[in-house]
Amino acid sequence: MSREPRPERLTLADGTMLACHRRSGASPGVLFLGGFTSDMTGAKATTLDVWCRGRGQAFVRFDYSGHGASGGRFADGTIGGWAEEAVAVLDRLTEGPQILVGSSMGAWVMLLVALARPERIAGLLGLACAVDFTRYLLWDRLDERLRERLRRERVISLPSPYGEPYIIALNLIEEAERHQLLDGPELPIRGPVRLIHGMGDADVPWRISLEVAGKIASPDVRVILVKDGEHTLSRDQDLRLLTRTLGEMVEGR
Q1: 214 Cβ partners below 8 Å, 6+ apart?
Q2: What's the pLDDT tens digit per position in 102-126?
Q3: In a domain, 250, yes or no
Q4: Which position among 49, 63, 201, 203 bears the catalytic label?
Q5: What distance in Å separates the CA atoms of residue 163 and residue 175, rounded to the nearest whole number?
Q6: Is 201 annotated in the active site?
Q7: Residues spanned by the domain of 106
Q8: Do residues 237 and 45 lie in contact, with contact meaning Cβ atoms separated by under 8 Å?
Q9: What's the pLDDT at 2?
């Protein structure tokens, strides 16, 4: 198996270095936005890379600050900050219309990027859309003892079923309140939107994707439910559904 080439480095205005892989190719390009604590070497990101290479489609994947091969401390990260990084990647590493593919937290970031750069968006494809997860997945799951500890220590560590413990920062939860979408007005997002969600998702309820679909102004929004799908949606059949759905979006332009 060939080794992956070393990532490109994108330096932001504040000096933060982001690790990226980009592939030139046909339009629309595809920009992958990963999840909380994940990186661009995961199954969904690499599957899309191979798929885009096979089609000659432009593709970019990257690590947020504090993730994977990028610089910065994970505990310093925020939803707004990671969304700004995604906008910088869109602005500086892609050309023309883009289909954004967001996984879990990345689907929240995807929506924020679409709101910031509507003229660049050809479509949105969300997987296990974790909009507003800092409330129901982090804060609401803490008992009062852990909440008090988080207020006191500012950063705590919690077990994760996906490997390394979650590092939870109070600043992440507080800053995220400025980017909550479910309680706000209609989202002025146009164009095709597809939201794939597993009904067996133990982390992000599949009804979140239904709520998001109802918030988006575009009439071309579809929610695809996978009855036996879990949160990661990384089984072979899930990845085939991902690439098939993306292919339909590319061909449908």
Answers
A1: none
A2: 999 999 999 999 999 999 999 999 9
A3: no
A4: 201
A5: 25
A6: yes
A7: 8-245
A8: no
A9: 54
Distance set, CA 165 to CA 139, 144, 173, 180, 191 (Å): 16, 20, 17, 24, 37
**What pLDDT, in 10s, does the model give residues 203-226?**
999 999 999 999 999 999 999 999
Q: Is 104 a catalytic residue?
A: yes
Q: Which of 38, 65, 70, 104 is catalytic?
A: 104
93 pLDDT above the threshold of 50: yes
pTM here is: 0.96
Inside any domain, residue 60 = yes
Total count of domains within the chain? 1
- Establish if 253 belongs to a structural domain: no
Q: Which residue has the tokens 């500086």?
A: 92
Indicate the pLDDT class of residue 54, thresholds 50, 70 and 90: very high
Choosing from 21, 67, 197, 231, the catalytic residue is 231
Q: Is 71 domain-assigned?
A: yes
Active site residue 231: yes
The CATH number that applies at residue 128 is 3.40.50.1820
Dist. CA 15–CA 216, nearest whole Å: 35
